């Protein structure tokens, strides 16, 4: 006897013996899907480049994507720093900027160990205060005028495709009069390979198009400014903005950002015992500039900008069509009373579409060092979690860009 499930998007899933059919009211679900507007942004494109399956979970599942609360701190930390930087660039009020940052990240601390949160808060305040006093910022303000701070830009190179981005700063060079764009990146790695990756980053290619369309003039170059967070070892943060080493055996205290070769007469001091801004006076300008170094301009090849846009449109059209076909199947898997045969039948179609359009990058599942495992590790590897992520601890992702929220509504 045939068994049918009707889903919100108008699809009908029919089971009959060992067979199954997925149909719409008037046409089969595997026909081409026509989208009036396809929205995408830098975050989902970069995620797609790293692991297409993660792209599906994070941006397509359930229409908006899903996130895992336990992995939200990194996003919250970056967001808090950017909110503080925005306040500082607009008003010049450092104290107000730090208050904004702490208020922003406060909700992300729920469930985290108090000692760990204290270290993270000290790191956040140190990065904001350090940027305000850094040589990199002084050079930036000396060479450029700030045109816009975190302005939402929307590029519509093709009526069907909308690309949203939010450059941290749009600036104009005081001597040449040309536009440039500044991107801030909190990072645990500032080795040479970290800098090299930005020479060909899709983020810079995409923002070039958006700036030109909105401002009516070419973007001359970009600046990617790292803010070194240090690294975490045995539950402690190793950062000059959290702790340093002090030697009191002399006429004046000596400070070292890194552990001295010999421990004699040296002691490790936490920044929280001194507080900000006094801690910056202790560690000195060289330590600040080592964590927030001066960067060089990056010039983007116009031909590669156009090639990126063509590739992006092709891929985003594929993503939109595949996500539409996957939606009723994903919904079917959340039905608790499916029989084993019915669930197997849904999985066959679901997995075929996922494997075709959103293949996994298994190297990103569990890194050997440097960061936690993928946020969607359990959704991929544990069947019942992948069948119903929102019933297994994941939450619906909140749109980050104004254009995305408008497009979703």
Task: Describe the structure using short key phrases.
409 residues; alpha+beta; 4-stranded mixed beta sheet; 17 strands; 21% strand
What does this structure look like?
The structure is a single chain. The protein is 44% helix and 21% strand. The protein has 15 helices and 17 strands. It has a four-stranded mixed sheet. α8 crosses α11 and α11 packs antiparallel against α12. It is globular, with a radius of gyration of 25 Å. The two termini are 39 Å apart. About 2% of the residues have low confidence.
Mean pLDDT: 85
According to DSSP, the number of beta strands is 17
Distance between the termini: 39 Å
Broad structural category: alpha+beta
Largest sheet: 4 strands, mixed
Low-confidence stretches: 24-32
Strand order of the largest sheet: 6-9-10-11
Radius of gyration: 25 Å
How many DSSP H or I helices?
15
Could you state the oligomeric state of the chains shown? Answer: single chain
Form type: globular
Beta-strand content? 15-25%
Helical content (DSSP H or I, runs of 4+): 40-55%
């Amino acid at each position: 006897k045939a068994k049918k499930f009707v889903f919100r998007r108008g699809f009908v899933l029919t089971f009959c013996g060992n067979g199954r059919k997925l149909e719409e009211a008037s046409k089969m679900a595997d026909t081409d899907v026509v989208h009036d507007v396809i929205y995408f942004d830098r975050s989902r494109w970069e995620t797609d480049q790293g692991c297409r399956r993660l792209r599906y979970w994070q941006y397509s599942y359930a229409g908006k994507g899903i996130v895992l609360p336990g992995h939200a701190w990194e996003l919250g930390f970056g967001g808090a720093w950017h909110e503080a930087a925005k306040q500082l660039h607009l008003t010049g009020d450092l104290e107000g900027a730090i208050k904004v940052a702490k208020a922003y990240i406060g909700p992300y601390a729920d469930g985290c160990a108090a000692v760990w949160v204290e270290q993270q808060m000290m790191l956040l305040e140190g990065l904001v205060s350090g940027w305000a006093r850094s040589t990199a910022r002084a050079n930036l303000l000396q060479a450029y005028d700030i045109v816009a701070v975190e302005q939402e830009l929307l590029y519509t190179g093709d009526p069907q495709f909308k690309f949203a981005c939010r450059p941290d700063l749009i600036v104009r060079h005081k001597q040449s009069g040309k536009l440039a764009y500044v991107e801030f990146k909190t990072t645990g790695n500032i080795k040479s390979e970290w800098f090299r990756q930005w020479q060909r980053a899709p983020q810079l290619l995409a923002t070039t198009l958006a700036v030109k369309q909105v401002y009516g003039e070419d973007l001359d170059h970009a600046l990617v400014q790292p803010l070194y967070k240090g690294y975490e070892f045995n539950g402690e943060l190793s950062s000059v903005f959290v702790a340093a080493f002090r030697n009191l055996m002399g006429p004046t205290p000596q400070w070292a950002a890194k552990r001295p070769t010999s421990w004699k007469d040296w002691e490790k001091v936490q920044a929280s015992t001194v507080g900000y801004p006094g801690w910056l006076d202790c560690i000195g300008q060289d330590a600040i500039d080592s964590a927030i170094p001066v960067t060089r301009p990056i010039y983007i090849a116009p031909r590669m900008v156009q090639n990126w846009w063509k590739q992006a449109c092709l891929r985003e059209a594929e993503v939109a069509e595949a996500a539409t076909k996957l939606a009723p199947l994903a919904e079917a898997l959340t039905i608790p009373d499916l029989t084993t045969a019915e669930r197997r039948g849904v999985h066959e179609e679901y997995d075929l579409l996922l494997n075709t359009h959103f293949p996994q990058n298994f190297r990103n599942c569990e890194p050997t060092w440097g960061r936690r495992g993928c946020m969607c590790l359990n959704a991929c590897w544990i069947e019942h979690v992948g069948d119903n992520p929102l019933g297994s601890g994941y939450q619906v992702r909140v749109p980050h860009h104004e254009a995305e929220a408008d497009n979703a509504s």
